[in-house]
């Protein structure tokens, strides 16, 4: 139970850091393009992790071939999640992206069933329903602006594929989590991502390098927060929690981004939070507490019964 609570504390911290992403992007968007915003923090985070990851690699007695799986996970998962979401948002509406992103935990649960064999129990279904209702209440403004007309079809399709990529990555990384340290998983993923993103940065945004000396304090703050919290610390904590929880449980925690996004937007951006959004945030928190406490106890009871049954039969 203590490990479960610790895992959810880590997930709360992760989602709080991830909820800062949109604010950080707003801080940097006047001087930095979308590709550089992703590429630079990942590059810096990879450099920070390089020494630790190499040490873990040597201690684990691994070979170069053992980390090829991260090329697949990044190419089919992390890369589409970043790049297709960027392009999709350009050809669609931000409100469309916000609503479609609500499908992420659902798709993650499907992949967890197909790839990991995880199953949904009654408690998880209840938690998902409560969370979805809560997120819908938080997103009433986006829902009102939702437009799935043909002129946004390409953008919406790219966003949909990005969400599928993200879901696949979250489940795929869970499958290999026991063989690698958190530092290795972040480092190998980022190395592949940097390699894939570098041509895009050089082709579309090479002029940004000449502007680096003129970056404002606001831009530096945004890039620093993206590097240290969004791409470095949050991912280490996320992979730590992923090792101790089912992918379906972790998927539900993604709705906490919406929960934390409310006060962040209100404090940093001066946005008003209405009563429906507050009620929705409370429901998201309740769903998280249900799956943290109740689901954990159900799993523990089931495990004890299974062990007792095995002892009896032997």
What does this protein look like?
It is built from 15 helices and no strands. The chain has 314 residues and is an all-alpha fold. It has one domain. It starts with a helix and ends with a helix.
Q: Considering DSSP H and I runs of 4 or more, what fraction of the residues is helical?
A: over 70%
SSE arrangement, N to C: HHHHHHHHHHHHHHH
Q: Please report the distance between the alpha carbons of the first and last residues.
A: 28 Å
Whole-number average pLDDT? 76
Structural class: mainly alpha
The gyration radius over C-alpha positions equals 20 Å
Record field, number of beta strands: 0
Helix run count: 15
Question: Strand share of the residues?
Answer: under 5%
In one word, what is the shape? Answer: globular
Tell me the domain tally: 1
Low-confidence stretches: none
Largest sheet: none
